[in-house]
Amino acid sequence: MGAQWKAKGKAQVADAKGKLFGKLVKEITVAARGGADPASNARLRLVVEQARKVSMPKDTLERAIKKGSGTGADAVNYERVIYEGFAPHQVAVMVECLTDNVNRTAPEMRVLFRKGQLGTSGSVAWDFNHVGIIEAEPANGDADPELAAIEAGAQDFEAGEEEGNTTFWTEPTDLDLVSRALPTHGFTVLSAKLGYKPKNPVNPANLSAEQLEEVESFLAAIDGNDDVQNVYVSLAG
Which residues form the TACO1/YebC-like N-terminal domain (predicted)? Predict the structure, then answer.
């Protein structure tokens, strides 16, 4: 599971695309605060590229940019909030939300964390590194992830979430630089964002099948909340 937990199962694919669009719209809206032109707003450029790769309709994308930049009639202001705590069996979790109403989101998180433990700010953040996360696929059969990581300036790499893909880890400030460099070293960037990587992930082998199922059920409930953007969990593999 590594840095970011994702729900499993083919039956969830259809719902996942709609949820992905919703998350990307929020990310675009927030990024557009720094300017509506992707050419001069690196953060916006990265998320717009990701939206295009998953075939987000052009009018949806443009409407999100207008919302965030304040140029649209329905401008909206999302706030990024991090909730920290533990899933069952003391598995550390960081939940990243984008919300237009913290007074709604906070009590919802308290309810969702009842089967785990909701902590205070900093209670588990110390056990995660703030990093840039780039998911990429080889553009050709000769692409070497180790060489690409070195040449592009990534800090580390590992097998990606999908077979054949690679996840590159960067310093937060190097995310855009490495994203721009990877294509020249044989990799097509699928997504690039800031996130969290656990320092000391729990080995799933140390949990029973029943315990692991409880953790998965807890994470699925968290991820199902509309305000949740990303769930980072300290569980290896």
Answer: 5-70
User: Do 43 and 140 share a domain, yes or no?
Assistant: no
Which residues lie closer than 8 Å to 157 by C-beta, 6 or more apart?
Answer: 145, 146, 148, 149, 166, 167, 168, 169
| pTM (whole model) above 0.90 | no
SS3 40: coil
Q: Distance between CA atoms of 42 and 35, rounded to whole angstroms?
A: 10
Q: Give the whole-angstrom CA distance, residue 29 versus residue 99.
A: 11
- What's residue 234's pLDDT? 94
CATH number, domain containing residue 182: 3.30.70.980
Q: Let me know whether 34 and 144 are in one domain.
A: no
Instruction: Quick: pLDDT tens for 20-47.
Output: 888 888 988 988 888 888 888 888 888 8
Cα 174 to the chain's mean position, in Å? 17
Give yes or no for a contact between 77 and 29, defined as CB atoms under 8 angstroms apart: no
List, for residues 174-212, the tens digit of each pLDDT value.
999 999 999 999 999 888 889 999 999 999 999 999 999
Neighbours of 233 (CB within 10 A): 26
How far apart, in whole angstroms, are the C-alpha atoms of residue 47 and residue 37?
12
Residues 64, 153 within the same domain? no
Whether 145 maps to a domain, the answer reads: yes
Element of type H or E holding 232: strand 228-233
- Whether the CB-CB separation of 183 and 197 falls below 8 Å is answered with no
Answer yes or no: do 111 and 132 share one domain.
Answer: no
Rg of the Cα atoms in the chain: 18
